[in-house]
């Protein structure tokens, strides 16, 4: 084997394990679920591949409200996380100094606890008879018969809390890479601190905003834990429906079809979001 041929094959050798991993644990299960979604039958007699594409239209018409609710909840949580995470990431990147590692540890600390336990803790915090709700009632932010538990707000709050680190970390990494001399140059040329932040820092942080938004929105749209623990039947998300279909009802074709519809919807929303932000800007910033 010639040297030039070995040089051309070397990248394939390095990429081989990753490609094998993707084929075994992503592509193969994806193809399997696609075939399952096109089956007909029931859990008693079994399922046969009949190429029944009508399951997609039936699933979409039956659970359109859950799809819409999932997108709205995930979008709201993503926006809330961005509002909270940007100042926090900015502080850690520029103001934390020698305590930077400590603040990063505080951000990732919730990952040391199960998501179920974290969500259950929120259930205790927003209990109707708890201190938080009682205080909000005393100051008039919640009516006397109002509640936080089992509401849409509780579900969005839980999603926002659980996925906040996924927004903070990409933003921190992006902000830390920004050359501070650019900000100093903007202020030297007459820009105020706020104008320099708006016209220099924020545009350069767009890759982190994009990455953080994806890392929050994608798992949030398919989440079922927060809606199950903090919500009610009126706040059911599509993840709850898919879980119920797979585990309880054993309606595998509908569950698989719902999963593919959700994945397609997320890909479309990501493409639109990337188009609005500007893929050229993202590529240039990444380089």
From TrEMBL:
Matching InterPro entries: MetI-like, MetI-like_sf
Organism superkingdom: Bacteria
Coiled coil residues, start to end: none
Pfam hit, one: BPD_transp_1
Q: How does it sit in the membrane?
A: Multi-pass membrane protein
Q: Where is the ABC transmembrane type-1 domain?
A: 67-273
Regions that span the bilayer: 12-31, 71-94, 101-121, 153-173, 202-222, 255-277
Q: Does the keyword Zinc apply?
A: no
Asked if the record carries the keyword Transport, the reply is yes
Q: What Gene Ontology biological process does one annotation of this record name?
A: transmembrane transport
Alphabetically ordered keywords of this record:
Cell membrane, Membrane, Transmembrane, Transmembrane helix, Transport
GO CC terms in record: plasma membrane
Write down the SUPFAM superfamilies for this protein, in alphabetical order: MetI-like
Which PANTHER family does the entry mention?
A: INNER MEMBRANE ABC TRANSPORTER PERMEASE PROTEIN YDCU-RELATED, INNER MEMBRANE ABC TRANSPORTER PERMEASE PROTEIN YDCU-RELATED-RELATED
Spell out the family assignment given in the record's similarity comment: Belongs to the binding-protein-dependent transport system permease family. CysTW subfamily.
Its protein name is Putrescine transport system permease protein PotH (TC 3.A.1.11.2)
């Amino acid at each position: 084997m010639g040297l030039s041929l070995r040089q051309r094959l070397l990248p394939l050798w390095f990429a081989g394990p990753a490609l094998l991993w993707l084929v075994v644990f992503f592509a193969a299960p994806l193809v399997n679920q696609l075939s399952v979604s096109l089956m007909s039958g029931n859990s008693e007699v079994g399922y046969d591949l009949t190429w029944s594409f009508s399951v997609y239209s039936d699933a979409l018409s039956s659970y359109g409200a859950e799809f819409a609710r999932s997108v709205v909840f995930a979008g709201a949580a993503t926006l809330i996380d961005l509002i909270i995470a940007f100042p926090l990431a900015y502080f850690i990147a520029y103001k934390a100094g020698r305590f930077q590692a400590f603040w990063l540890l505080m951000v990732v600390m919730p990952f040391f606890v199960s998501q179920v336990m974290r969500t259950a803790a929120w259930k205790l915090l927003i209990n109707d008879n708890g201190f938080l709700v009682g205080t909000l009632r005393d100051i008039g932010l919640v009516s006397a018969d109002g509640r936080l538990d089992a509401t849409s707000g509780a579900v969005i709050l839980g999603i926002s809390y659980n996925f906040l680190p996924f927004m903070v970390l990409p933003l921190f990494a992006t902000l830390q890479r920004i050359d501070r001399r650019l900000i100093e140059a903007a202020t030297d040329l007459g820009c105020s601190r706020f104008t320099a932040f708006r016209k220099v820092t924020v545009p350069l942080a767009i890759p982190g905003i994009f990455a953080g938004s994806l890392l929050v929105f994608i798992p949030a749209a398919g989440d079922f834990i927060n809606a199950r623990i903090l919500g009610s039947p009126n706040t059911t998300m599509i993840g709850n429906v898919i879980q119920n279909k797979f585990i309880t009802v054993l309606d595998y074709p509908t569950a698989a079809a719902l999963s593919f519809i959700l994945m397609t919807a997320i890909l479309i929303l990501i493409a639109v979001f990337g188009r609005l932000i500007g893929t050229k800007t993202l590529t240039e910033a990444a380089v």
